[in-house]
Amino acid sequence: xxxxxxxxxxxxxxxxxxxxxxxxxxxxxxxxxxxxxxxxxxxxxxxxxxxxxxxxxxxxxxxxxxxxxxxxxxxxxxxxxxxxxxxxxxxxxxxxxxxxxxxxxxxxxxx
Length: 111
Prior knowledge:
Blueprint: E1 2-9, E2 24-31, E3 38-46, H1 49-54, E4 59-60, E5 72-73, E6 84-93, E7 105-108
Antiparallel strand pairs: 1-2, 2-5, 3-4, 3-6, 6-7
């Protein structure tokens, strides 16, 4: 089974002062099974950790059929100055099995 780890926003872990409107999100996929690979992903972004569990979300990418784990731009509504955004990702493998959600990560917008 795949596991999403190493979540980054604009190439940093839990960064402050993000100054781009649509920050780029990245992660690594790890697995204890040799040859397992990511075939799809889903990102959810929320205003706090409680909302990550069931919404409301600032953005839900839905399931995206894509194997890359880098340069995925936030696609939700415009974010406010100093707004903190919490996010998680889950992955699907070639057998169609979904991973658990990643541990939460966050970024905070600049002024």
